[in-house]
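Hey, quick one: can you model this chain's 3D structure?
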Amino acid sequence: MIVSRNRSVIPACDVDSLDELKKIVKNTCSVEGIGAYKVGFSLVIPFGMEAVVKAVRDFTDLPVIYDHQKAGTDIPDTGSQFMRACRKADAVIIFPQAGPATEDAWIRAAKEEGVALIVGGEMTHKAYLESEDGFLSDSMPKRAYEIAARLGVKDFVVPGNRPEKIVEYRKLIESFTKEPVFYSPGMITQGGSLTDGAKAAGKRWHAIVGRALYQAKDMEKTAKEMVKCL
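Sure thing. Here's the predicted structure for all 230 residues.
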């Protein structure tokens, strides 16, 4: 398991400096129910993966999840390079929008490099899938989830602001693998309810929360209130 508890809140640390990152971690890491920290390109590109992970490790041993926003969108051959570059993190999120060949190759590369993987399919914003005037086929998320599950992936990103989709994807994924773990962005600021998401996702679910937590006046108090909703 990437996260040691069945349910948790994962702060999405989409900030621009290591000082801001440290502030988030310092004020939330002792809260029972915080499961990991998600970091993205806004920190890793300017400061490097090693420095970002160290900033978290100064306060806690909770897992660091890297979300490239979005990885898995290149040719199959670059998967190994990407996974080697991410080995300092405890897990990596990919959204294999470049197709099944890339998804297969990148999942296999993660296994070869010993990188824990979380696979996403549907994002949380409008105009993503064709039925909402987006670029991607409506079948893309299901195909991506199925391929990942068949290749042994146990961890999946599902849209937190669409609990009905969480239920739909959960049923699909559970038909291919036992006891999957779900992670959901799109919470609170994007309309997702922690309580509704937890009900939809079942036993193993982690709410990824960004602005509603790190922009709060009292992050520790807010974090405690959030984990109660799980």
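One thing worth noting: Residues 195 and 229 are 5 Å apart (CA to CA).
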